[in-house]
From TrEMBL:
Keyword set includes Transcription: yes
Keywords: DNA-binding, Transcription, Transcription regulation
Pfam families: FCD, GntR
GO molecular function: DNA binding; DNA-binding transcription factor activity
UniProt-recorded name of the protein: DNA-binding transcriptional regulator, GntR family
Signal peptide annotation: none
Family annotation (SMART domains): HTH_GNTR
Residue ranges of domain HTH gntR-type in the record: 15-82
Family annotation (InterPro entries): GntR_C, TF_FadR/GntR_C, Tscrpt_reg_HTH_GntR, WH-like_DNA-bd_sf, WH_DNA-bd_sf
Length: 249
C-alpha cells in the first residue's frame, strides 16, 4: 500500500477517535452523568470510554478550553463545577437573541410550525410522565429551536446551544424538581395559545417569565447543592465514572 495512503488513513482514524472521546465525555459532563467536582485519572477515563490515551488527552484539552474540565498537575482531571457567572452570561446571550427571534416568529406564526410546537409539547408530557428529565430537556430545546428554524436563524441556535454548557447543566439540575418541569411544560402550552391568538404582549411577557425561571431558581439550587458549584471548597474525589450522578439527585 502507498505510504501516503497509509498515512492519510491513520490520520482519519486518529481524528475519528479524537471526536469519539471528545463527544462522549462532553455529553456525559453536560448531562450530569459525571458529577461536577469529580476528579478522575486519565487511566480510568481511557478504560471507561475504551479510548487510547492520545485521543483522550486531546479531548481533555478541548474540553478544558470550553471550561468543562480542569487539568490538575499530579492529580488528574476535575470535571468542572457549575459556574454561576457563566450561567448568567450564557442565559443573557440566549435571552438577547431569542427575544428577537420570538418577535419575528410572532409576526407570522405559520401553522406548520405551531403544529411542531404542539407535537413537542405532547412528547414533553410523556417525558415528564416517565420522569425522564434529560429527554424533557432535549424536547425543551427542540421546542425553542422551532422558533429559530421558522425564522431562518438555525445558525444562531447552533451557536447558543454549543456554548451554553454551564447553563445546560443548571437547567438540568433545576428541572430535576419534577414540579418545575411541569411548570415549564405549562408555560409552553400558554405560549402556543398566545401565538394562535396573535397576542404579542402576552407572548413577550410569557417569554420573559419563562427564561427568567433559571435566574430565580439558580441560587436556591446552588445552596441546595453547594459542592457542585465554583467557589466552594467541598470538592473531593468521587468514584462515579460507572454511576449516573444525575439519577442520585
Amino acid at each position: 500500500m502507498d505510504i501516503n495512503k497509509q498515512s492519510n488513513q491513520a490520520k482519519k482514524i486518529t481524528s475519528v477517535n479524537d471526536d469519539i472521546a471528545y463527544s462522549s465525555l462532553r455529553k456525559d459532563i453536560i448531562e450530569l452523568r459525571l458529577r461536577p467536582g469529580n476528579i478522575v485519572s486519565i487511566k480510568n477515563l481511557c478504560e471507561h470510554y475504551q479510548i487510547n490515551r492520545s485521543p483522550m488527552r486531546d479531548a481533555l484539552l478541548r474540553l478544558q478550553e470550553e471550561g468543562l474540565v480542569e487539568l490538575l498537575p499530579q492529580s488528574g482531571t476535575m470535571i468542572s463545577k457549575i459556574d454561576i457567572y457563566r450561567v448568567k452570561k450564557e442565559r443573557f446571550l440566549r435571552m438577547c437573541v431569542e427575544k428577537n427571534v420570538i418577535k419575528l416568529f410572532a409576526d407570522n406564526p405559520k401553522e406548520q410550525f405551531i403544529n411542531c410546537l404542539k407535537t413537542s409539547v405532547e412528547n414533553q408530557k410523556m417525558s415528564i410522565k416517565n420522569k425522564d428529565i434529560r429527554s424533557f430537556l432535549d424536547l425543551d430545546d427542540e421546542f425553542h429551536n422551532v422558533f429559530y428554524e421558522a425564522t431562518g436563524n438555525s445558525f444562531c441556535a447552533n451557536i447558543i446551544f454549543k456554548v451554553s454548557t454551564h447553563y445546560r447543566r443548571m437547567r438540568l439540575l433545576i428541572n430535576s424538581d419534577i414540579e418545575i418541569a411541569k411548570t415549564v411544560l405549562s408555560e409552553h402550552c400558554e405560549m402556543i395559545n398566545a401565538f394562535e391568538n396573535n397576542d404579542a404582549s402576552k407572548i413577550e411577557k410569557l417569554f420573559d417569565n419563562h427564561l427568567d425561571k433559571i435566574g430565580s431558581q439558580q441560587f436556591i439550587f446552588s445552596e441546595k447543592y453547594p459542592d457542585l458549584f465554583i467557589n466552594n471548597d467541598t470538592s473531593k474525589e468521587y468514584d462515579s465514572l460507572n454511576n449516573d450522578f444525575f439519577l442520585t439527585l
